[in-house]
Amino acid sequence: MSVVDVSDQESWFHKNQQRIAPWLFLAPGLLFFMVYVIIPVFQSFNLSLYEWDGLGAAEYVGFRNYEDLYWEWVDRDAFYTSLKNNLIWLLLYLAAIPAGLFIALFLNQTVWGIRLYKSLFFFPFVISQVVVGLVFTWFYDPTFGLLNEFLSLFGLGPLNVLGDERFVTYGIIFAGLWPQTAYCMILYLTGLNAVDPEQIEAGRLDGAKGFRMLWHIILPQLRPATFIAFVVTIIGALRSFDLISIMTQGGPFGSSRVLAYYMFEVALSEYGFRMGYGAAIAVVLFLIMLCFIAYFLWSMYREERGH
Q: Which residues form a coiled coil (predicted)?
């Protein structure tokens, strides 16, 4: 290689250094994302077309696993219950977003003791979901739980929340809302720190205050935080597993199952090592998540183009 060729390569690198540098920084993350996310997604799609117990030879069955899921839906069997519970999780879990916003607005004040309040509201976010599950299992206990102690003051109870098919899913969702609200609160607190004070001052001069100030001036500036809160909350609701495993193990009588827990049951528990069937459930769960996230991405893209 001549000196001219080397100098030409060096000059090309120096000319394109600013364009290349971001990709060099992104390369390790993209590589890990490809290996641990993208490739397993396609492997799950492929595995869902097979009948496999995890040890022997895999047998190609085409879309039979999806047909079985369809008939479970028609017969209102385990898959129907799991999907229905996931939709309930999704609808009620979204309450964490407005709750986190209002707590963030309250904590975004300069009053005495605000650091203590922030620590108390932040606490649920840093503890494990396993701990949250155990705490609420004790809270709901029909013999010594605080919930029934409180109900007894009004002559009510005892109420076995986790043992009643009517209440169990709502009880677990309420437990999950505790740390999820804290997470949304942190997102909004971060967003509130970036709100433009000049816009707020201009709004005050125009007579905006209270709800009008919040709706027309503060919330539009919190759009990025709201988008992240929606995406994270939707994903958290659809992949809920740990609280169900700790608090009820899908019971009573499978009434608190969700898709992620049902996938675990059919693929890895004593119900039988049906890896292909579990992969089919994972694909359905992935497609539901993809639809919601694609919708929010498209909505944000349209808003950005509109501005």
A: none
pLDDT tens digit string along 146-196? 998 888 888 887 889 999 999 999 999 999 999 999 999 999 998 888 888
Q: What CATH number is given to the structural domain containing 106?
A: 1.10.3720.10
Please indicate, yes or no, whether residues 32 and 138 belong to a single structural domain of this protein.
no
Residues across the chain: 307
* Whether residue 252 is found in the same domain as residue 113: yes
Q: Which residues contact 222 (CB under 8 A, 6 or more apart)?
A: 101, 188, 191, 192, 195
- The domain total for the chain is 2
- For the stretch 135-150, pLDDT in tens is 999 999 988 899 988 8
Residues 192 and 73 both lie in one domain: yes
Task: Write down the pLDDT at residue 196.
Answer: 82
Q: What is the pLDDT of residues 263-301, one digit of tens each?
A: 998 988 766 688 999 999 999 999 998 898 888 888 877
Asked if the structure places residue 62 within a domain, the reply is no
Whole-structure pTM value: 0.86
Residue 5 Cα distances to 1, 17, 19, angstroms: 6, 18, 21
User: Looking at the structure, do residues 74 and 39 belong to the same domain, yes or no?
Assistant: no
Query: What are the tokens at 216?
Result: 């027309």
